[in-house]
From TrEMBL:
Superkingdom field: Bacteria
Catalyzed reaction equations: adenylyl-molybdopterin + molybdate = Mo-molybdopterin + AMP + H(+)
Organism for this UniProt entry: Pseudodesulfovibrio nedwellii
Functional description taken from the UniProt entry: Catalyzes the insertion of molybdate into adenylated molybdopterin with the concomitant release of AMP.
UniProt xrefs under SUPFAM superfamilies: MoeA N-terminal region -like (SSF63882), Molybdenum cofactor biosynthesis proteins (SSF53218)
Entry's EC annotation: 2.10.1.1
MoaB/Mog domain: residues covered: 182-319
Name of the protein in its database record: Molybdopterin molybdenumtransferase
PANTHER family, sorted: GEPHYRIN, MOLYBDOPTERIN BIOSYNTHESIS PROTEIN
Cofactor annotation: Mg(2+)
Amino acid sequence: MNSIISRQRALRDLLRQTRPMPPKETPPFEGVGKTTAETVNAVCQVPEHACSVRDGYALRTDDIERATVLKPVRLKVKQAIHAESRNPKSLGPGEAARVLTGGPVPDGADSVLAEENIEINGSFIVVREPVRKGWFVRAAGGEIDAGIRIAQQGQIISPQAAAVMTRTRTGLIKVHPKPTARLIALGSELIDPTIHDDPTRFPADNLVLQRGLFESSGVTVIDATVVPDNKSTLISLLNDTTLPELIVTTGGTGRSERDFAQTGALESGFTMLFEGVDIRPGRHVFAAVRDNTLLFGLPGPPAAGHACFHALILPVIRRLRGLPDQTEPLMARFTQGISARPGSEWLVQCTLKMQGSQLTATPLAGKEVPPMVGLSQANGLAILQSGDAILPGEEAEVVTTLF
């Protein structure tokens, strides 16, 4: 294979290896954040029966159509209905029912008078003005009808959608489980990012960066660890018989005697998909596969890992989660001009922002923006081809986890 391939070729090779996670059945409340494997429809209508939306009295509008201040109408209160009441007695002429919010409206009644609009006189209510039919009554199916689509296939289940599924008595739903990932930061100079009292080594910021990117994209990170410059330790980790769907190593992708990420993967039984991609930053990224596990070897600089995640790993995550592939590029209008040097495809850190209905991109590049300052402010990357020159107001493709 060619040692350096295009990003488009790398994506094709990766997606050929990637299938959505096999669907599993789960109750709606456990499906939040997961992707539907089939369309979910409401099992029942809500409310199941006409109900009151106020505390008050259910009655027949025909009984009070002639009510006035001077000639009020008296109605006999025959029963009290609560939200949990079922099958209340029908109302006859001249009768009313005390009903609380959410309580079913009895047969015969067609409206509800709020309690502040009536006068109570013993076991009677006194009504001094008429109301129209349906007043303060929510009809059966008034919130949602049976069979209405709640979530279509390939949609991430929101808490709201899960709540509606639950209320419409949906049982188990088929979802694609979240993929899992293991993160490995290579380097004897690194220390676990939770340790702050060792001045001789550097906190593994790549673990923090990649964990955040993976988790914000719907992946469960099962482990994030630092591995010193010892190939046998890496091989031992990669030889685990219960590997997750995704493994990411950071660092060790160069060509020095201490760069063993690729050889460690090969000696662990992984097959190389590509050894480098024609992007900057991130040219030395590689990918390999073994059984159902994809391994990405990212360069050590965090900005390169940030770029490689968006350009190569994010589409794989979407496929694993059962989300539809993005067929149309996401475009943003540049607030400042920028040019790309010849020779590679460039991934430029940007701040993305919605201004009205327009997505805008402000590049974080150049000598005036140090790499780590740009990384701290970036929420997306612009994809520029070799030699591109983008003027203020022109558009270019961007990638981001925001949408």
